[in-house]
Specification:
The complex is a heterodimer of chains A (about 375) and B (about 400).
Chain A (H helix, E strand, L loop, with lengths): L6 H17 L2 H9 L6 H9 L18 H14 L5 H15 L2 H13 L4 E3 L15 E5 L2 E11 L7 E8 L2 E7 L6 E7 L5 E13 L3 E4 H40 L1 E2 L2 E2 L4 H29 L5 H26 L10 H13 L4 H20 L1
Helix pairs in contact in A: 1-4, 4-5, 4-7, 5-6, 5-7, 7-8, 7-9, 7-10, 8-9, 9-10, 9-11
Chain B lengths: L6 H17 L2 H6 L11 H12 L18 H14 L5 H14 L2 H12 L5 E4 L15 E5 L2 E8 L10 E7 L11 E7 L5 E7 L4 E13 L3 E2 L6 H5 L2 H8 L2 H17 L12 H30 L4 H26 L17 H9 L9 H13 L6
Parallel strand pairs in B: 1-4
Antiparallel strand pairs in B: 2-3, 3-7, 4-5, 5-8, 6-7
The chains are: A alpha+beta (about 375), B alpha+beta (about 400).
Chain lengths: ~375, ~400
């Protein structure tokens, strides 16, 4: 048992903290928010130059090869700074899956380019009423030289800019994971504004021809790939939530220490300080379950239960810390000239992405039931 | 970052688990049915405790000079977790919290008598801190110790002196300087043999367990039983609080309740067909318990690991206390809800589920949120030490 973090992982996190801090001053964030696509390309370039886009990409593919755990610390820092960079869809869901399940040619073609920041590959894992990419409603039909894919994916990040979008579809009983070119015939992208005010896209695929060179995995390999992608994405969301919630709580601790009412700082009322202390407890709990899930994935160990619990904590803690932070700020917290609202919106977005606490709690309960019924014979 | 037990750590866990099965003899289980001996202290308890001493299981974390094995905190936690899980009334406060302090601060004669006795499983020590008017504000305690030649004359009353009915000593905090500039600067620690003239007690029956009020009436105590310097008692009290907490909230004791209820629910028919565990609301409660329990496990491991790296961060120690104590209470409720009325049937009554452990644990658990440092004070500490917020008024 070892909770220590290696020096390399630590310095990568510190470097990320510094770069992200430099690029996320409020004016800069406001400017990026005016853009059609909420993506800070200069920041992305800076992260690439620092080697931080390739944390979980092997060295022979142009990355730094520090592993998945290190990548989750980058996600945490992005959360802490609400930086407009697509670390989860590009680096975790797409690149992480390609690195583990892609063909050698695909790794060669995409991973180095992602690490250098020259190309974006994003992922579209969710459909309407379906957050599990292992059981998509989208369909694939085998044809000469590849597959023809039809179906709808929702809330896709960077759908217009990415060179490819990683999707899953079902060919009869078989699962297929493919890279879809958003410029291919049969693809339409419909703008969707989400809670954070960010533009995303509904991806509608109508018999899109995907060549064999863009098929990532089929059959059992594809099932494993989507299991990995879902677990890794949930864990990365939990890590981002650690950063978001830690920051919201600290903003609130500082604000209540300065804000005076009845002639004293409101933090000197136990009713206020204890509410912030409860956030601290919540964040510590979330940090521990997230670190556990991330280190299991990092070591390639079975992680499904640990991930489910991390995402459940993630959903609960983002909700509680966000509400407590808003409450303790009074009107200041809801003012868009004050930084808190960005954290609250992102917190809610994370909570509802890739499975809510309620859904995962229900699934975990079913797993417990199956486990103990099997034991009882 | 590798949050799993190593092969050696798992082997130690297994070794302690197997050994504790031999300690929990049928005679001991029978003896514990007697309300007088439920918290230990009966002849079979003494026999098994002494056997643990003879087999070298007591004081594993102590220094080699004291006959210990200098186990790491992680190993010590694994030992504690398994002992608590077994249900044996092992006197952790004696062995882990108080004895190392006595070993470091007592005079040679008393050290040999007490530390040697604990090591052999022959001596237990009760804690004499709280008083009727000194609980959370412990430094305001008024039990007096006055110097008289080579002795001290002790007068006062302590509350919640658990194990006082069979302990050999009380580890007593007394006021030796009533005029000290700050209340906590006038306190001194003593070991009071419970067979000394002037010591008496009355039982206090709580919602859960039996404890005691203890009385100190003109006790003439030789100076050799003073531990540490005069008026320097406060740091001996506070120095071991984190170690105390590490034995209060362990994972195994509640994990075994969760597993027991899951097994029960998988074997028990639901009224409408199928098993209890197939009901959605049962699954929901079990999943909530599991999700909360996971953090108890991680917090315990992290604390033990952190104590091996250096002094424990104050805010982290308070997080562990508040989270665990409040979750334990929730866990008892959620598991009792699964069993419904059957969960209220007491041990030894027909139809009791899991030997009525849950209804009993819930009654004992009522003390957790205020015992060992009330949670309001812990939250104050978190706000100040973790978030740099100003002191509340």
């Amino acid at each position: 048992m070892d909770f220590s973090i290696s020096e390399e992982v630590n310095s990568a996190q510190q470097l990320a903290q510094q770069i992200l801090g430099d690029f996320t001053e409020v004016d800069k964030l406001k400017r990026i928010e005016q853009q059609e696509e909420r993506f800070d390309t200069e920041l992305w370039k800076a992260l690439a130059e620092a080697g931080l886009l390739g944390l979980d990409i092997p060295e022979n593919n142009g990355g730094t090869g520090l592993g998945f755990y290190s990548l989750t610390t980058l996600c945490e820092e992005v959360g802490r700074t609400v930086a407009p960079v697509p670390v989860i869809p590009v680096l975790v869901s797409a690149a992480g899956t390609l690195r583990r399940f892609g063909t050698d040619a695909q790794k060669e073609q995409w991973l180095g380019a992602i690490a250098s920041g020259s190309t974006l590959v994003t992922a579209a894992l969710e459909e309407y009423n379906n957050e599990d990419p292992g059981t998509p409603a989208s369909s694939a039909e085998k044809m000469d030289g590849g597959y023809s894919i039809s179906g709808t994916k929702i809330c896709v990040s960077l759908a217009q800019t990415a060179a490819r979008i990683l999707v899953s579809a079902r060919a009869g009983e078989e699962l297929v994971v493919a890279l879809v070119d958003p410029r291919a015939a049969g693809v339409s992208l419909n703008a969707q504004v989400i809670m954070t005010g960010e533009n995303r896209h509904e991806l509608v695929m109508d018999k899109v021809q995907v060549p064999t060179s863009d098929i990532v995995a089929t059959g059992r390999e594809a099932v494993a790939a989507m299991e990995w992608a879902l677990q890794a994405s949930r864990t990365a969301l939990a890590a981002m939530a650690v950063g978001v919630c830690d920051k919201m709580m600290r903003i609130t601790g500082s604000y209540t220490s300065e804000r005076e009412q009845f002639g004293r700082a409101i933090a000197t009322f136990q009713a206020v300080s204890h509410r912030v202390a409860d956030c601290y407890i919540d964040v510590e709990c979330l940090r521990l379950v997230t670190q556990q899930a991330a280190s299991l994935i990092d070591q390639g160990r079975p992680a499904s239960e640990a991930v489910a619990m991390a995402k459940i904590w993630c959903g609960d803690v983002t909700h509680r810390v966000s509400q407590a932070s808003q409450h303790c700020h009074g009107g200041t917290g809801v003012d868009r000239d004050y930084p808190l609202f960005r954290y609250c919106e992102l917190a809610r977005q994370i909570e509802l992405t890739a499975g809510s606490s309620a859904r995962l709690m229900g699934e975990l309960g079913q797993d417990i039931c199956a486990e103990y019924l099997a034991k009882a014979g | 970052m590798n949050i799993e037990l190593t092969t050696q750590q798992k082997a130690l866990q297994q070794e302690v688990r197997e050994y504790m099965k031999t300690v929990m003899t049928p005679e001991l289980i029978e003896e514990a049915k007697n309300p007088e001996y439920k918290e230990g202290g009966g002849p079979e308890f003494r026999k098994q405790y002494a056997r643990m001493g003879a087999d070298g299981w007591i004081g594993l974390s102590w220094s080699k000079e004291l006959g210990g094995k200098e186990l790491s905190h992680v190993e010590q936690y694994i030992f504690t977790d398994e002992v608590v899980r077994s249900g044996f009334a092992y006197p952790f406060l004696t062995t882990e919290a108080v004895t190392p302090v006595i070993a470091a601060n007592a005079n040679a004669e008393v050290r040999d008598e007490v530390v040697g006795g604990v090591k052999q499983g022959k001596v237990t020590i009760a804690i004499g801190y709280s008083e009727p008017n000194a609980g959370t504000d412990l430094a305001s305690l008024t039990t007096r110790a006055e110097r008289d030649g080579d002795d001290w004359i002790i007068n006062g009353q302590k509350m919640w002196t658990s194990l006082g009915n069979y302990a050999d000593y009380v580890w007593l905090a007394a006021r030796t300087d009533p005029d000290a500039s700050k209340k906590h600067k006038g306190l001194t620690m003593f070991l009071v043999p419970t067979d000394i003239e002037g010591f008496s007690l009355t039982p206090v029956h709580t919602l859960g367990v039996r404890t005691n009020a203890t009385y100190y009436s003109d006790i003439r105590l030789p100076d050799k039983y003073r531990v540490g310097e005069v008026n320097a008692g406060w740091k001996l009290i506070t120095g071991q609080l984190n170690i105390e907490r590490l034995s209060l909230f362990t994972h195994g004791q509640v994990d075994s309740l969760y597993q027991g209820v899951c097994e029960w629910a998988a074997e028990t028919d639901a009224p409408g067909g199928g098993k209890i565990i197939e009901l959605p609301w049962v699954q929901h409660n079990l999943a909530k318990v599991k999700t909360g329990l996971e953090v108890v496990k991680l917090i315990c491991w992290k604390q033990a690991w952190a104590m091996d790296q250096g002094p424990l961060n104050m805010a982290d120690a308070s997080v562990a206390k508040v989270y665990s104590s409040e979750f334990f209470v929730e866990l008892y409720r959620m598991l009792l809800e699964v069993m419904g009325q059957a969960g209220t049937i007491a041990k030894h009554s027909p139809g009791a589920v899991l030997q009525g452990k849950l209804e009993f644990r819930w009654r004992v658990g009522a003390v957790l949120t205020f015992g060992g440092g009330t949670n309001e004070v812990q939250r104050d500490i978190i706000a100040m030490a973790g978030l740099w917020m100003p002191r509340t008024r």
